[in-house]
Amino acid sequence: MRTLQVSGLTKNYGEKKALDDVSFQINQGEIVGLIGKNGAGKTTLLNCIAGNIFPDAGSICFENKDLLVNCEIRKEFGILIQPSFLDYMNTYDNLRLLQNAVGIWDKKLIRKQSDEVLKIVGLEGKGKTFVKSFSFGMKQRLGFAQALLNGYKFMILDEPFVGLDINGRAMVKEYIKKIVKEKQIGVIFSDHNLDEVRSLCERVIVIKDGKKIYDKGLEEDGQYEIGVESVNQGLIQAMAGIPGVEIDTEKSSLAFNNNTDLHQVIAAIVPHARIVFVKSSENDLENMLKGE
Ligand SMILES: Nc1ncnc2c1ncn2[C@@H]1O[C@H](COP(=O)(O)OP(=O)(O)OP(=O)(O)O)[C@@H](O)[C@H]1O
């Protein structure tokens, strides 16, 4: 299993604790969004995983191998963190350097792979253009192309949508979903916008002041639980007509998420059982981010 395991990650910059005992796991085929306000520690965390920063404590393992020792594993990671290019080289040459770094020297293969990723990111025909003439958004697209080139096993993307227009954002999202499905790689990406994150992933990690304060699947957000005095046959039959409602007879409760209409469920319960409580974790995440 290609699992990324981050344990007890801590990084200080002098007195400043940029990361404080952060632990989580990302499985293959999983896209995880990393959210937090400015200065929360997102880039530091991604840089530690990418090997650009050495943590003060903790471990990062991939496929059960310690990444802090086996650095070469990262050659097969697609990384987009503050993309940097050699401005005096053209697009092809910038991509070629990365391919050479992972041991690809075959010129035909290099050109084929480069043309493929340039097409994906909408820079088709720009292979011979010097990078210094690129706009910020075009550089961001090229940065994503670089990440795609080496993203065989895992992808680390720091604010991949910054500077991209609507088409660019849609392209990045579509392609991330596609490769995750096809190659079953894991992806962690950071962003400030919860809607953007929701549209791409199923799980969100929130960090605040270097600490992980939230780590849940988005489907767990917006859950309802209704307690009843007792679960009877009439209630079971009534709930059978409403998709998404799970009945726990032992706890005398019903659980469903916000895809199911709360009022419809309550109306269906009332003729059969007395409601004891209604609990909602609706939009925990949204509330938490507002409260930051
Ligand atoms: N090289 C550094 N030297 C000193 N402090 C640093 C350094 N890099 C980051 N920091 C501090 O560490 C904390 C975390 O920074 P980081 O860049 O990881 O946050 P972030 O969540 O990525 O922020 P943003 O959303 O603004 O990009 C911040 O307080 C920042 O000022």
Automatic annotation (TrEMBL):
ABC transporter domain segment(s): 4-234
Swiss-Prot/TrEMBL keywords: ATP-binding, Nucleotide-binding, Transport
UniProt xrefs under Pfam families: ABC_tran
GO function terms (MF aspect): ATP binding
Spans traversing the lipid bilayer: none
Gene3D superfamilies to which the protein is assigned, alphabetical: P-loop containing nucleotide triphosphate hydrolases (3.40.50.300)
InterPro entries: AAA+_ATPase, ABC_transporter-like_ATP-bd, ABC_transporter-like_CS, P-loop_NTPase
Entry-linked SUPFAM superfamilies: P-loop containing nucleoside triphosphate hydrolases
Protein family (similarity comment): Belongs to the ABC transporter superfamily.
Stated name of the protein: ATP-binding cassette domain-containing protein
Native source species: Roseburia yibonii
